[in-house]
Amino acid sequence: MSAAHTAIGTSHLVEAESSKRDSAARSLPPQTLLEWLRMMVLIREFEVRTMQAYQDRKIGGFCHVYIGQEAVAVGCTAAVEHEDPIVTAYRDHGHALARGMDPKYCMAEMFGRIGGCAKGKGGSMHMFDRDNNLFGGHGIVGAQTPLGAGLAFGTKYIDEVINGGRSQRVTLCFLGDGALNQGALHEAMNLAGLLNLPVIFVVENNGYSMGTSIHRGTTMADEITSKAIGYGMMSAQIDGMDVMNVYDGMKEVVDEARATSRPAFVDIRTYRFKGHSMSDPRKYRTREEEEVYEDDGPIAKAREYLYDQKLLDEDGFKAMSKEVRGQVRESIKWADASPPPDVAEELYKDVYVERWGPYNGTSEPEMLGEPGGNGEG
Amino acid sequence: MANITLVQAINLALVQEMEKDDRVMILGEDVGLNGGVFRVTEGLFKRFGKDRVVDTPLAESGIIGTSIGLAMSGLRPVPEIQFEGFLGPAYDQICSHAARMRTRTRAAFTVPMTIRVPVGGGIHAPELHSDSPETIYAHQPGLKVVMPASPYDAKGLLISAIRDPDPVIFFEPKRIYRAFREEVPEDEYTVPIGKARTVCEGEELTIVSWGASVVQCMQAIERTDASIELVDLRTIYPLDMDAIEASVKKTGRCVIVHEAPKTSGFGSEIAAQIMERCFLHLEAPVQRVAGFDTIMPYYKLETEYLPDADRIEKAIEEIRAY
Ligand SMILES: Cc1ncc(C[n+]2csc(CCOP(=O)(O)OP(=O)(O)O)c2C)c(N)n1
Ligand SMILES: [Mg+2]
Q1: pTM (predicted TM-score)
Q2: Which architecture characterizes domain B197-321 according to CATH?
Q3: CA nearest A130: which of A161, A105, A159, A152?
Q4: CATH number assigned to the domain with residue range A25-341, chosen from the 4 options 3.40.50.970, 1.10.3720.10, 3.30.1490.190, 3.30.750.24
Q5: pLDDT digits (tens, 9 = 90+) for A184-201
Q6: Ligand closest to CA A72
Q7: Contact B293 A112 (CB under 8 A)
Q8: Least CB-CB distance to B33: which of A113, A284, A357?
């Protein structure tokens, strides 16, 4: 009765378009391309050290690394403006870094330290950065998608209803292929289509939802852009292993969404090189399959292009990698030095605007001693 | 007898019920090929095949809603939700349909479904992976809510739940999935739903608890010289108030321990019923040791949040000195 239990095999990726036509990315200043490469190397190094820190038990609970998907976050964030809101799911370290979060805040968050972007009270899945317009980092699969529609609604409302202008904003709402099957996404897409909300649903299609391959989890698995048709929105399919190609594909979609103030749906084909989380033996796929994707990873691809164009040489890349390693090492040092949240100070904080919440003493933390009055502002 | 963990006990119960009754089937995310996130359904896919151990898409509302339809067709679905935090998307199906179907149809249709859900904190996980929402479901008439604290009870209660003609939410305290082993009969047996267990007898004071907190209570009891009776609810709803009443009338003192936030936690209901039934026998006000009225914090604050032996011991001393 159920679908055959197949791994995605080796034909999940689509061919890059950039080699075939005029590429917007190619005409960008070399410095920009070098920055993209550097950011991908930073994310990779950050995640490698994250995995080590997890093994060393500095990070608790669940931890989902972004290794293999770097080109998606980097290419997508490059294709939008800094003021355009971004919201994503739990595999969010790459988006945080690409959006400009200092790695030390990201690392400290995972270490459960007060210096983290959510004061060490959120963890790996909860990256937030108001200054960089990153709205999370959310742990319930698919639940961020109506938020994405709402963020787009918000910017448009402010621009048009309150300020009486013509809105130029778009919102990027990232989701995994597993989230395609959550009801919330379909409600969000219908709303976005109906109300003309300029949100771009970016599916980071890595072929797996935990151990379930996309063919076992969703209909029209090879052609998920077909889902956009029913909700009246434009769509595109993009090779996600090539950062220049991600940029090119996204730029077109973003420009169109901006110009029309309408939603879009993008299927970015990528691959997560590691397990779903840190405790995943990956029995649902073969090492051969993994190797096919790893061999042609996004970092190698961008580096080769820059070598070919004589914009970078091996020494340059070595220097870049070394610098990045230093930066990540610093972030770990910084996170280590940051203290854990103080119980008395933080346990009750930020549940409500009032310091102790409106409880009138039903449940004060006993360790607080005299909590300084209930209902204090 | 087999010396097994709580995870193994649940696995054994599933195997035995599925062998016995081909109406019993499993649905959930990665429950088949991968054996579930906590490996509770390990081996079942191989043993019973893909039609009885169904890997579903990532869609909790769909999983529970479909299970309700299966149950209304006369089957005995045992859907798994990976963590208690993901009950959210399924809440509507559970509380608007499963719980009400018998009443709504005047018993023309019923929902003999058992929803298995790992619950609670203590594994260094973030919010939505550490919560204790048992009260939410105990407050919904039409549902039964079960939470074992030992491998023996887990097996016997799960078999009862699967055979129960009404919907049961079977919460599995993930902190003690593999924390200890216990001798469990290999043959099938049931532990009745709605009956508490007296873990140890005592004269001075009653502790009422459930789930992983029972283990914390046992640690606290070992530390004191007081004569303490520990009652493990095993079923949250229907509540075995007779057992609590008998114990509290004997001891005159009661401490209730649970992980969920204190305000409107299930301890509130128990305390109220103790007032109704045991008022003249009480030597001291009922005490509650619970989680705090905050979102379950991550990692570094988790141990402060969860009731531990220290906090329980403190409550014991306070109530004894009253
Ligand atoms: C509602 C809900 N159900 C289940 C989970 C557990 N879970 C976390 S990630 C995941 C798989 C998601 O896969 P996908 O959307 O493809 O993202 P990817 O991990 O590939 O980045 C599952 C089942 C969850 N977090 N939320
Ligand atoms: Mg995926």
Answers
A1: 0.94
A2: 3-Layer(aba) Sandwich (3.40)
A3: A105
A4: 3.40.50.970
A5: 999 999 999 999 999 999
A6: 1
A7: no
A8: A284
